[in-house]
Design goal:
173 residues, alpha+beta, 3 helices
Length: 173
Amino acid sequence: MKRCGLLDKIIRRVWQQAWNVNSMAVGDGRNSLRYLAPYVFRVAIGNHRIKEVTFHEDGTGSVTFTYKPSGERRYRKMTVTAEEFIRRFLQHVLPTGFQKVRHFGFMHKRSKIRRDWLSMLVTVTLNMVYVLIVTPPLIPVKRVAKCSECGGELVSVGYVPWKASSLPAPDSS
């Protein structure tokens, strides 16, 4: 913030809040997409995964559901208190004003903006250096038929249509 000249624009109240920042590199983003995809396309937990809801006499409850540990193929069961289940579920609810998936602009499936162009625009907008690599277009190479004996190029002079009746009769001996 200091380097960008924004430090004096931050209100004092912000510095009195407790902050927990954990910023790590994610590579090219594939792992992030793999992690976020279930949250974008589904709800946090489907009804078919909730196996049992138990009400206790003291007014509390418990929820048993199935989950799949990362790196494993089979599902396991877990039982937690109702409060813990609601707490975990609410971690996946978006704040007011946020949209889950945007279906307009460059995110629309029929958008004509290419990803490399979008990457360049974002890079330039963030005042970063964008390296443009220009490569010559690939020219298709015409395959040439070669003689199996001498290796010379075969040239087609024409063709004779094939007729079954023009073939000699097979030798019966």
